[in-house]
Structure formats: structure tokens, C-alpha cells
């Protein structure tokens, strides 16, 4: 029997429209951001875990860059030592030809020591033998530095990839599912609006009793 106190049907339809509107808004947001979790209300625990993995990925990425910088710095030093090695070879030639007291020998020795110093090696060599000894010792150290830096960069790169994958699994939206939800909520909005209109029209039936 029609009631003039409350239109319960209209109230229920209006409430359900609100629920549908929220679902539609969420589907649109997920499709436009690509993220399933856009705020804590979407999944508080997921947000905690997802942001944690994202932070790990960013840390790993910065560490990769730092290790790569170490590698290239060592590589640059090794380049100086390569030049120092070439000068040491020239010293050996001058020594072999009996010109170890020549002006050229003095100049080449200075060049060898200068290049060695730029590469981080001892710059107090007095002949080809001491020059090569200092150079080779430093190049061995640099080789270890480069190998370690490259390995660490690879390890941190893997850690970053794994953390990013875990973050995406937790935070990323299922685009196919959200497209289905979008269509569903659009249909429900249309149907719900029509139902609310019909529910509100019942008041006209009550008014008709007074005619």
C-alpha cells in the first residue's frame, strides 16, 4: 500500500546509485592511472607493501648508478696507466740503446711518472722496471675495482627489477578487469537512474488518490 511518510524504494535506489557512482569513479581512476591502489582506502596493506617495494627499487637504482660511477672512474684511471705503460716501454728502449742518461730519457721518465700519478700509481719511478712495477700493481687494483663494481651494479639491477615487479603486482591495475567494471557500472548507473525516477513517480500515485 502506498505510503506518504517515506519513499523507501526511492531511498534504496538513491543509496545504490551512490555505491554505483563510487564503483564507476574507481574504475575510471584505475584505468587513467594504471594503478589498482591509488589511496589507502583502496588497499591499505597493499599500499604499505607496494610503496615499500617501490622505495627498494629506487634505492637499488641509485646504487646501480653509484657502482657504475665507480667502474667508469677506475676505467679512466686505467686509461692514464695505459699511457704510462707506453712511456715505460719507451724508457726500456732507451735503456737498451744506451741512452738512459739522455735528455729524452729524462723527459720520458717525467711523462711516465706524471701519467702514473694521474692513474693513482706511485710517481717515483727511476727506470722502466720500477715504473712498470708501480703501474702494473695499480692496474691490478683497478681491475679488481672494476670487476667488483660491475658485479655489484648487476646485483643491484636485479634487486631493482624484482622490487619493481613486486610493486607492480601489488599496485598495478588489471586493465581488462577494470574495462569490464567500467562497462558494468555505466549500465548500472543508467538502470539505477531510471529506477530512481520510477520510484519517485510513485508519489504521484498517492496524489492521485486525492483527485
TrEMBL record:
SUPFAM superfamilies assigned to the protein according to its UniProt record, in alphabetical order: Phase 1 flagellin
Signal peptide span: none
Domain Flagellin N-terminal, first and last residues per copy: 4-103
Cited Pfam families: Flagellin_C (PF00700), Flagellin_N (PF00669)
Species this chain originates from: Geothrix limicola
Acetylation recorded as keyword: no
Biological role stated in the UniProt entry: Flagellin is the subunit protein which polymerizes to form the filaments of bacterial flagella.
Subcellular location: Secreted; Bacterial flagellum
Keyword Secreted (UniProt): yes
Positions of the Flagellin C-terminal domain: 130-210
Name of this chain's protein: Flagellin
InterPro entries, alphabetized: Flagellin (IPR001492), Flagellin_C (IPR046358), Flagellin_N (IPR001029)
Membership in a protein family: Belongs to the bacterial flagellin family.
Amino acid at each position: 500500500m502506498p505510503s506518504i511518510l517515506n519513499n523507501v524504494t526511492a531511498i534504496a535506489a538513491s543509496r545504490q546509485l551512490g555505491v554505483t557512482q563510487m564503483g564507476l569513479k574507481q574504475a575510471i581512476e584505475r584505468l587513467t592511472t594504471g594503478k589498482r591502489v591509488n589511496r589507502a582506502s583502496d588497499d591499505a596493506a597493499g599500499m604499505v607493501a607496494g610503496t615499500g617495494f617501490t622505495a627498494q627499487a629506487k634505492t637499488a637504482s641509485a646504487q646501480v648508478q653509484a657502482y657504475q660511477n665507480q667502474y667508469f672512474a677506475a676505467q679512466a684511471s686505467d686509461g692514464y696507466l695505459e699511457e704510462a705503460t707506453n712511456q715505460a716501454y719507451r724508457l726500456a728502449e732507451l735503456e737498451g740503446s744506451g741512452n738512459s742518461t739522455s735528455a729524452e730519457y729524462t723527459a720520458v721518465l717525467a711523462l711516465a711518472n706524471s701519467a702514473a700519478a694521474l692513474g693513482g700509481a706511485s710517481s717515483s719511478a727511476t727506470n722502466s722496471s720500477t715504473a712498470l712495477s708501480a703501474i702494473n700493481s695499480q692496474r691490478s687494483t683497478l681491475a679488481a675495482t672494476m670487476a667488483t663494481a660491475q658485479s655489484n651494479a648487476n646485483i643491484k639491477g636485479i634487486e631493482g627489477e624484482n622490487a619493481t615487479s613486486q610493486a607492480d603486482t601489488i599496485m598495478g591495475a588489471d586493465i581488462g578487469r577494470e574495462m569490464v567494471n567500467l562497462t558494468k557500472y555505466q549500465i548500472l548507473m543508467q538502470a539505477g537512474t531510471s529506477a530512481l525516477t520510477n520510484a519517485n513517480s510513485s508519489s504521484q500515485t498517492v496524489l492521485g488518490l486525492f483527485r
